[in-house]
């Protein structure tokens, strides 16, 4: 890949003064501070204007330190040799230019000529804002609105040519086909596949996922019979990515950007390719307009545009792309990346954000606008119940519903076409209050937003759901009744990144539904990919169904984050219960799995399980004193497996090995060859059935019926009868848990509104068999049937 040339890099004085005059005029326009900040935010960061790079930083910390503009510069770094973005580690020499700025209060601006803009094939100049204190010590401020961060949010950003990236996108026809001459509004999808990019394919990158989508597309074009591994990706008309923003970095190193020598004109840097693993929600807020470099195979942000194009150009019908944005919190590492004005105090995840500060508010919204301009059709907002501010008049915390509306109102512009995305909010307020499971309506945002197609995650989708415990479905029946009456604007389905993770944290000593499988692994897999539950989600419930790829592929999943040092052992002690649910002795013994833990002396699963069983209570007993924990572990008799004698360093090594091994173990590519043909065919047909009947998204009305067979007689069998506007009736029967029901004819079981005439079997769960024509049968746990008929 070619690199930036060391042309004459200098301030363009006239353009700098013009930029400074514009900023002053905008601030002094008489408009509210937030409106002025939003206009300025559109030009913040480093943006290409013709042959110039216009740079605007908001840096109140410089003003607070009383630093004059003569000690403030835009530092431009031009690689002198090559940068191979694919290499794991390299030493790079940069020519350093310090460009003077105009300082207007907390703002620093400059128009610079000679900077190279990065493209798909060219590495651009790197930049940051630097200032010098009275001791002649240099301090660096990174660009929170950077477009490209090849070495993460704690390293200088790359000046990038976003216009060239947009001009080269291959889905322009998709946008040209959008109806209407005004701002297009994207509406709901039919069904969603949720994907964690690093575990979705063997390539563990956005480019790898794009190649997989393009391979599937070509198979569809050629009319190839889909294989089980194909089907888990097919039938959905939307893909929702877990967050692709930069996340936390290693707490104690190694850093991805380490300056090892330099003077006023040159800088030598030890560069490492970012390789952190994270489930996506541990963000530092800075860099949210860019992409996590650990997900980029080429370190080029164009990869995300390529993925959007692959989905939009999918044969048969385009697939929507949905981004997951996280603004409800910042990890504590964000304190290193942003000035203190961005934060409003600590919370359980790290830091609250200061939504009421006009510049912070404007920057957050601008980050969102720039990210969605990569080509997303929808936005899912994580943890919207955490968007709060302190109302000093009433002395209470208030939900910032105005900010949520501002998020939904943002207008995008891709390929010259304006649109507004479809919005989904995860909001379980009053979570995390103790009574949230009872008191949350899951409608707070829906009822406050102006658009009638705003969605929220529904009650079977949000947080703690355990469909592998006996009585789960009956205890949730009151919520199911809410779904059928009010769920048209809810996301439905039990399996997502959060619920599957919560499932692996449940004690296996609870009342497990052993009819789901012969082992804990099988029980967990079937609970979150249950043919009967899928029947309800796709053939009965209103709203938009969503599945998690790892659940549909029956792949493992959990909290994946290898950056922690201080609390890493504690986190792993809490997460290690997933060993009981997702790993058996045979699987652990396979050569490709858990190689790091094996290298530390955990030769078999039983030895590792014994270590974790003892480790977990020691966290609480010692109040997480690693020294005392090591002493107690060393005193166990007989001795534990592992790198004995234990000490704090070795405990941290074990925690890191667990996280890295679990990340590899959760990769979907490990499981695709184990998928069943009949089951994947069944779930794909369910999705196609739903897509062909968009009216199923609407709430139950009139003669529609939903109930469970009464008396239960030791089983939970749900029935759903829905009447389509085209004269079609749809009847679904699903056995969710309990004893078998012997010799039941679903069309003659006394279900109100159902009689025996005219029904045809449309779909059977795999264990029933294709030769079942209708009539009496014995329903077991997990079985389901779908009937249709035309009304006379």
From TrEMBL:
It comes from the Bacteria. This is Uncharacterized protein. It comes from Roseobacter ponti. The lineage of its organism: Bacteria, Pseudomonadati, Pseudomonadota, Alphaproteobacteria, Rhodobacterales.
């Amino acid at each position: 890949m070619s690199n930036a040339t060391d042309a004459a890099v200098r301030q363009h004085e006239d353009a700098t003064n013009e930029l400074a005059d514009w900023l002053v005029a905008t601030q002094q326009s008489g408009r509210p501070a937030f409106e002025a900040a939003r206009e300025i935010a559109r030009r913040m960061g480093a943006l290409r204007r013709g042959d110039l790079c216009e740079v605007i930083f908001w840096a109140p910390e410089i003003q607070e330190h009383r630093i004059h503009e003569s000690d403030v510069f835009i530092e431009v770094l031009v690689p002198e040799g090559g940068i191979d973005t694919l290499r794991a580690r390299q030493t790079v020499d940069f020519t350093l230019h310090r460009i003077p700025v105009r300082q207007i209060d907390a703002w620093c601006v400059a128009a610079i000529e000679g900077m190279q803009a990065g493209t798909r094939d060219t590495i651009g100049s790197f930049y940051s804002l630097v200032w010098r204190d009275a001791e002649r010590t240099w301090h660096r401020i990174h660009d929170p609105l950077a477009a490209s961060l090849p070495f993460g949010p704690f390293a200088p950003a790359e000046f990038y040519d976003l216009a060239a990236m947009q001009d080269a996108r291959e889905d322009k026809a998709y946008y040209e086909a959008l109806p209407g001459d005004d701002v297009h509004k994207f509406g709901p999808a039919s069904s969603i596949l949720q994907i964690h990019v690093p575990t979705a394919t063997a390539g563990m990158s956005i480019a790898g996922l794009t190649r997989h989508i393009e391979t599937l597309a070509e198979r569809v074009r050629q009319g190839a019979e889909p294989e089980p591994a194909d089907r888990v990706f097919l039938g959905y008309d939307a893909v929702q990515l877990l967050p692709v923003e930069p996340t936390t970095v290693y707490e104690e190193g190694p850093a991805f950007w380490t300056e090892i020598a330099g003077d006023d004109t040159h800088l030598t840097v030890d560069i490492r390719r970012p390789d952190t693993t994270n489930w996506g929600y541990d963000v530092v807020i800075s860099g949210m307009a860019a992409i996590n470099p650990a997900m980029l195979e080429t370190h080029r942000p164009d990869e995300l545009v390529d993925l959007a194009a692959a989905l939009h150009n999918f044969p048969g019908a385009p697939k929507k792309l949905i981004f997951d944005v996280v603004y409800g919190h910042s990890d504590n590492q964000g304190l290193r990346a942003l000035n203190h004005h961005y934060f409003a105090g600590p919370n359980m995840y790290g830091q609250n954000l200061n939504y009421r500060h006009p510049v912070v508010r404007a920057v957050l919204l601008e980050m969102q606008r720039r990210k969605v301009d990569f080509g997303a059709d929808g936005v899912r907002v994580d943890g919207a119940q955490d968007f709060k501010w302190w109302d000093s008049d009433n002395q209470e915390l208030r939900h910032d519903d105005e900010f949520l509306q501002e998020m939904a109102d943002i207008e995008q512009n891709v390929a010259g076409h304006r649109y507004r995305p479809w919005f989904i909010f995860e909001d379980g307020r009053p979570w995390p209050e103790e009574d949230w499971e009872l008191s949350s309506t899951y409608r707070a945002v829906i009822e406050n937003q102006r658009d009638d197609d705003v969605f929220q995650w529904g009650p079977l989708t949000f947080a703690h759901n355990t469909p592998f415990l006996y009585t789960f479905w009956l205890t949730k029946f009151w919520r199911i009744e809410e779904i059928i009456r009010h769920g048209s604007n809810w996301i439905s389905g039990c399996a997502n990144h959060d619920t599957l993770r919560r499932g692996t944290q449940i004690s296996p000593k609870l009342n497990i539904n052993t009819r789901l499988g012969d082992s804990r692994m099988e029980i967990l897999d079937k609970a979150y990919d249950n043919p009967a539950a899928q029947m309800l989600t796709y053939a009965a419930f209103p709203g938009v169904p969503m599945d998690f790829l790892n659940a549909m592929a029956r792949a493992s999943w959990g909290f994946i984050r290898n950056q922690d040092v201080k609390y890493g052992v504690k986190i792993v002690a809490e997460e290690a219960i997933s060993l009981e649910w997702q790993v058996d002795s045979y699987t652990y013994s396979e050569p490709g799995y858990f190689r790091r833990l094996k290298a530390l002396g955990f030769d078999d699963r039983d030895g590792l399980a014994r270590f974790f069983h003892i480790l977990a209570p020691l966290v609480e007993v010692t109040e997480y004193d690693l020294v005392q924990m090591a002493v107690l572990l060393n005193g166990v008799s007989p001795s534990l497996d592992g790198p004995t004698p234990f000490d704090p360093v070795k405990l941290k090594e074990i925690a890191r090995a667990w996280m890295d091994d679990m990340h590899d173990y959760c990769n979907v590519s490990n499981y695709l060859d184990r998928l069943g043909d009949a089951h994947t065919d069944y779930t794909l047909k369910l999705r196609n059935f739903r897509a062909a009947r968009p009216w199923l998204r609407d709430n139950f009305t009139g003669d529609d019926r939903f109930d469970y067979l009464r008396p239960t007689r030791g089983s939970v069998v749900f029935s759903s009868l829905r009447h389509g506007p085209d004269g079609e009736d749809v009847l679904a029967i699903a056995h969710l848990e309990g004893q078998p029901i012997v010799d039941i004819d679903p069309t003659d079981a006394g279900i109100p509104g159902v009689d025996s005439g005219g029904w045809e079997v449309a779909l059977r769960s795999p264990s029933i068999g294709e030769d079942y024509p209708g009539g009496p049968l014995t329903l077991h746990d997990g079985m389901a049937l779908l009937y249709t008929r035309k009304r006379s």
